[in-house]
Amino acid sequence: LAYFRVVESLWGKELGKDEPYFWHGAHDYVELARRYPTPLSYTVEALQAAGQGRAEDARRNAGRAIALDPNDPEAHIGMAWALTISGEPAEALHFVATAMRLNPNYPSHYVLARGMALFTMGDLNQAAEVFEEGVRRNPGATTLFIPLGSVLAQRGRREEARQMLLKFRSGGDQKGLENLPRAYTFPFNWDYEHARLR
């Protein structure tokens, strides 16, 4: 899970390795964990499947994790992503709420799951509020900068969006911002049937 969080949170550069190093590390540890499945290993498998747009696999593994440990907030976040990428973001919000209740000192990736479910539902106002509160709560939560910038731009708050993207690309310039869509990869992929929601 630590390896997966590095990829999701875009921490690879700070740790001196590229993102594929951590993706491969997460995959290798999942293979080892399959020998002795635990709620955590199923959660990681769910997140890995969600990262590849395999919604049914993500749902199945998140369901296994929750069945084995219903009090594990990370398992609920795994299910939230599985539901969001499979076109059920409203249902995903229930799992995010459960995770936040189980872990009141929740990290920023819970905010990402909640905000993206709202974004996918088309509730840009609420998504902006969630992301903005997440950034206020944790100003170093780089994983929230791009989605917040996107929501702000779509709400017509373009200069605020630009500043958020510049914060993501500290020291960047206009050319860097123009290249950002090609350089940035969101850590989760919608399944084929629901790709339009992305």
One letter per element, helices H and strands E, the order comes to HHHHHHHHHHH
Distance between the termini: 24 Å
* SS field, number of helical segments: 11
Give the strand content.
under 5%
Helical proportion, percent range: 55-70%
Largest sheet: none
Task: Determine the mean pLDDT.
Answer: 87
Oligomeric state of this protein: single chain
Q: Please tell me how large the radius of gyration is.
A: 16 Å
Q: Per the principal axes of the C-alpha atoms, what is the gross shape?
A: globular
> How many runs of DSSP E, i.e. beta strands?
0
Structural class: mainly alpha
The low-pLDDT segments are none
Tell me what you see in this structure.
This protein is mainly α. It contains eleven helices and no strands. The chain has helices at residues 2-8, 19-33, 39-51, 55-68, 73-85, 89-102, 108-121, 124-137, 145-154, 158-168, 174-183. Helix 8 (124-137) packs antiparallel against helix 9. The chain is globular and about 50 Å long.
